[in-house]
Amino acid sequence: MQKANTHYQSHDSLIEVSNKLFKCLAQQLDVNTAYIAKKEPGYMDVVNAYNRDREIVTNDMSVEYKESNCKYVLENEAGIQYFTNLMTNANTAERPITEKLQVKAFLGVSIYGSSGEPFGTLCVMDEEERQFSNEDVTYIRTIADVLSFIIELDETHEDIDLLSVPIIPISADIAILALQGKVSQSRAVKIMDDTMGYAVAEQIKTIIIDISEIVVKGDEFIEHLNRLVAALNLMGVSVMLSGVPIHLAANEAISQALSTLDLQYVKSIEDALGLLGYELTEQ
């Protein structure tokens, strides 16, 4: 078990709504703990948790997917799984997470994102055995439907926010492309089209691409960046890359891929502008 990965979108609305629903859920099902876990590559990361008495699940918890109880929920075609007693069930008794948490009752259901794919799970647990009724299952499913709707709103709002391509003109032939958030396939196409269109229309000679606020999932972003840089180079535009985050520089595969790009690396936008003959002064 380790600290959860924090490099993903904010779920402020989901946390706010679930804070209001967790207490009702725990009281209705008479359990100690309720939590939302998000499925990340290889892990289940806790997004938000509530503990009525004993602290069992915390907001910074992350569990390997194959070791998690959520695995049973997500791999069940019905999107639901429950155990009366994790500590005596043949499938869960010997698992490290069972030993660590020392809980018996478990009930979990899938929650979904805007794509219709599972976002993760909504689960409840308790130190005592529980026989969950059909009414209990219906209740937690209702809560899960509400949370799925909130996730969809969050993701839709985020996609709208990120549709814009923030290009900042510095001079007649220099501009900054400040990338932030996630870069999906559709957004990568828009970034490519808008940046190339701007470079042609404004006769840009140098563009500074800042990635200090980028959120990277896998190596797809590097492929998108490579295509953008190659296209700009073909158009005679020189590229400077600033603000490479520490977690990217420390990733051997990503760092190696970045080193092959035909561009100049700088620590920050200020350094890039300095190399181009500009000086930032406080007013």
UniProtKB/TrEMBL annotation:
Short name of one Pfam family: GAF_2
InterPro entries linked: Bact_StressResp_Reg, GAF, GAF-like_dom_sf, STAS_dom_sf
Coiled coil regions in record: none
Residues in GAF domain copies: 27-152
Cross-referenced PANTHER family: BLUE-LIGHT PHOTORECEPTOR (PTHR33745:SF8), RSBT ANTAGONIST PROTEIN RSBS-RELATED (PTHR33745)
The protein's name in its UniProt record: GAF domain-containing protein
